[in-house]
């Protein structure tokens, strides 16, 4: 192993250096086109002279440091620098270096609008290449047209508000995310849940049965089927291709919820049989929150992406091709540019999904060596996110430990691991997504070390 480093020290020193550079940047922003004032020049030189010392301190790799304040008591977040982070909703949203650079360069509120020209719509901007990005995004998920939205939930909302009338029924999974419920409720619809089987998996048969049940009760078909590929409770894989066929057989529009798939594994909406594909940028596309994707086929694009027809009664004003469901323009600035900057990497990583699943199963096989540990998700895993149970292992230790369940968090933190729910020693979730094999081996060994320390049996 290479020489030891103090990750907390390095993280703080790097932030100090970045902030010094941002202070330089601010002076440049405020200077006149003809040059700096004497005061600005003196301050610029002062900051530059301090940078050498900061770089030397970074090179030392270790030392004493304090947490770095951004302003007041708003401190820097150093979780990703200090720890192996297994928090399930954060793994796929870690920014690439390119995305972090995009945030620095495009953080200003309307930064994407420098070159907005007729027809004055976000997805038509060519510099930066936002228009081309939208085209590539649709191709990426196997659909015809795509828009960026402020999170997957806004994709659900756009589809529901277009297709669902008051009193209409929408079929969702019994494991559906709460935002799917809210999208339907906001449109005035009614949710009906298709139950999962004894393996916590939703089948095509269950969805078909629910459709027949709704038709028998209401006299008409549901207006929409909205199903997660992998759910957020157990992250089990559901019969999405079978459900796509059922939707086509009944002639019901089908929304594919790819919050845990689009951006981390290959997704082809048309092969699935989906009419709409929704993804989460900040959950699975290495993008700043809030960000997401809504894609559809040509058949539905005119409805979902309908443009305003309203005319002002006094002024006679019209608003061109502004899209109603997105209030004209949607995702802009740092969230959009971070998604664009990460996109080449995101496209490439989806080709290596099998390797991510292999890492997940390697870790869980080691995890299961600890007597009493269980995997509550379907196993072997088909995803990097899993629900586990440590009631008969680490929770037994928690019952007599003075720190109760927090002993486990303490032990993981000592080993540079974060992201488990603090104090949880019964059922909880984790994700190994994006970890290197070295990190996977380290993570596995850490769990075994903790078990050994507290004299739990290891097979």
Automatic annotation (TrEMBL):
GO terms for biological process: translation. The modification N6-(pyridoxal phosphate)lysine is found at residue 283. Pyridoxal 5'-phosphate binds at residues 152-153, 257, 280-282. InterPro entries: PyrdxlP-dep_Trfase, PyrdxlP-dep_Trfase_major, PyrdxlP-dep_Trfase_small, Sep_Cys-tRNA_synth_arc, SepSecS/SepCysS. The keyword Translocase does not apply. Pfam families: SepSecS (PF05889). One of its GO terms (molecular function) is Sep-tRNA:Cys-tRNA synthase activity. Keywords: Protein biosynthesis, Pyridoxal phosphate, Transferase. The keyword Transferase applies. Converts O-phospho-L-seryl-tRNA(Cys) (Sep-tRNA(Cys)) to L-cysteinyl-tRNA(Cys) (Cys-tRNA(Cys)). Homodimer. Interacts with SepRS. This is O-phospho-L-seryl-tRNA:Cys-tRNA synthase.
């Amino acid at each position: 192993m290479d020489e030891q480093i103090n990750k907390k020290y390095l993280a703080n020193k790097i932030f100090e250096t970045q902030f010094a550079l941002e202070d330089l940047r601010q002076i440049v922003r405020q200077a006149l086109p003809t040059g700096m004032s004497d005061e600005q020049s003196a301050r610029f030189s002062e900051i530059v002279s301090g940078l050498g010392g900061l770089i030397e301190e970074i090179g030392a790799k270790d030392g004493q440091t304090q947490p770095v304040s951004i302003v007041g008591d708003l401190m820097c977040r150093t979780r990703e620098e200090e720890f192996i982070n297994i928090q399930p909703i954060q793994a796929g949203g870690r920014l690439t270096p390119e995305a972090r650079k995009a945030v620095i360069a495009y953080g200003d509120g309307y930064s994407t609008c420098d070159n907005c020209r007729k027809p004055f719509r976000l997805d038509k901007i060519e510099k930066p290449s936002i228009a081309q990005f939208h085209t590539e995004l649709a191709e990426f998920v196997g659909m015809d047209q795509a828009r960026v939205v402020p999170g997957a939930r806004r994709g659900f909302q756009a589809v529901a508000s277009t297709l669902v009338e008051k009193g209409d029924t929408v079929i969702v999974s019994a494991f559906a995310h709460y935002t799917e419920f809210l999208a339907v409720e906001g449109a005035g619809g009614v949710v009906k849940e298709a139950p999962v089987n004894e393996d916590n998996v939703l089948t095509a048969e269950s969805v078909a049965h629910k459709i027949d049940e709704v038709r028998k009760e209401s006299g008409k078909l549901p207006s929409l089927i909205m199903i997660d590929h992998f759910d957020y409770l157990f992250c089990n894989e559901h019969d999405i291709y079978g459900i796509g066929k059922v939707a086509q057989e009944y002639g019901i529009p089908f929304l594919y919820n790819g919050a845990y798939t689009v951006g981390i594994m290959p997704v082809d909406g048309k092969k699935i049989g989906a009419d709409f594909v929704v993804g989460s940028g900040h959950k699975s596309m290495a993008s700043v929150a809030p960000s997401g994707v809504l894609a559809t086929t040509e058949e539905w694009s005119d409805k979902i992406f309908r443009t305003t027809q309203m005319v002002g009664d006094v002024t006679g004003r019209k608003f061109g091709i502004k899209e109603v469901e997105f209030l004209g323009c949607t995702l802009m600035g740092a969230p959009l540019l971070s998604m664009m900057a990460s996109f080449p990497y995101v496209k490439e990583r989806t080709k290596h999904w099998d390797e991510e699943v292999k890492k997940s199963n390697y870790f869980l096989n080691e995890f299961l060596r600890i007597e009493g540990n269980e995997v509550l998700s379907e196993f072997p895993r088909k995803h990097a996110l899993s629900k586990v149970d440590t009631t008969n292992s680490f929770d037994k230790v928690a019952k007599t430990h003075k720190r109760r369940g927090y002993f486990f968090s303490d032990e993981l933190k000592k080993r540079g691991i974060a992201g488990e729910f603090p104090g949880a020693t019964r059922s909880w979730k984790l994700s190994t997504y994006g970890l290197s094999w070295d990190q996977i081996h380290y993570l596995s060994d850490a769990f075994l070390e903790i078990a050994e320390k507290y004299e739990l049996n290891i097979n």
